[in-house]
Amino acid sequence: MYKVGRGFRNRSKVGSMVRNMVMLARLGLKKSVTTEEPKDEWFDAFQVNPRALIFSKQRIVVSFSPKSACSHVVTWFFLKERLLAAANYYHPWPHNFRTKVYYDSAQFRRRRNALLANGQQDWTLIKVTRDPVKRLVAILRHAVRFPIADEIALQRGINIKRDGLSLREFGEVLKTVDLTRAARQVDTHLCSQIHPIWDMPFGRTITLNLDEVSLNDGLNDIERSLGLEVTNFSAHPKFDEIRESHYVNNDQDLDTEQNPEDVKFRRNQVERRFPKTVLQKLPYTSELAHHLYPDDFSQVVTNDTKGELFRTR
Q1: What is the pLDDT of residues 128-168, one digit of tens each?
Q2: Which among 172, 32, 162 is positioned nearest to 103, based on CA atoms?
């Protein structure tokens, strides 16, 4: 089995610990080294990060992108799969469990192989997306907070850690690299939302753009349509924890005569306050997003190929 996490001796409630261990066990934590990888044209697509999430009992695949409420979506998926307690026990950040436990599990590999072997016509793909312009601003903030673009910026003489980063500088850096996911040239946070599995012939594709439809309400509608138990998001504190720790809670104006696209943001200044609305409304931001992610705009619009959901939009 994998190591479940640190702090074992500090846990006071043994019963709770055991329940979480059972959760981990039911996932199948031994690496399935004996499972043959399928020789399928779509296998490589499934290896592109961030890899999709696959329901264990329903024929449903979830595709998400960094900076598109990905942590919220991953938490929702673990909740539906009754793995949220295990994920929380493993690490407070759900992506650690996703990348280090879930994708290495025998269960994930079995479900992926079944999907590839039997075709996708009886499967549903859920795509959680967002407005590429608003996502670009979120990516900028993330690149200021974390070193996801430091290396490629240094190649253009921009030291983000020392000097900060402006939107215009960020755009010039991103113009020099291939931002498609399959190219794997840069950190996945910087890439287009389009994932190679979107081209797979799924029987039904549901696209939920969180800038067009309330995310929780949209997920509830999807749950009803697919016969899943409807989630009461307010009953699960984890969603509030993610919102408080990761999202911009204090939007702000820019008190400067500089053009907003030329204002430099520093690593220790954007965790709690960031002028996201100002930057989102700039014509420059829209132009830059269309330049960097030209194909995203048509593929991230809220839609249901079955024609059942989102008909009032």
Answers
A1: 999 999 999 999 999 999 999 999 999 999 999 999 999 99
A2: 32
pTM, two decimals, is: 0.88
Angle at 300 between CA 282 and CA 43, to 5 degrees: 130
Residue 74 to residue 97: CA distance in whole angstroms: 10
Q: Are strands 60-63 and 273-274 parallel, antiparallel or unpaired?
A: unpaired
145 Cβ contact partners less than 8 Å away, ≥ 6 residues apart = 267, 270, 271
- Average predicted confidence (pLDDT) for the chain: 88
Q: Give the residue ranges of DSSP H helices in 146-228.
A: 150-154, 160-163, 167-174, 215-226
In the chain, alpha helices (H): 14-27, 43-46, 70-80, 84-90, 94-97, 106-118, 132-145, 150-154, 160-163, 167-174, 215-226, 237-246, 276-280, 283-292, 296-299
The CA–CA distances, whole Å, from 122 to 227, 261, 309 equal 15, 46, 18
Instruction: Look at residues 295, 286, 247 and name the one whose alpha carbon lies nearest to residue 129.
Output: 295
Q: SS3 of 271, please? A: coil
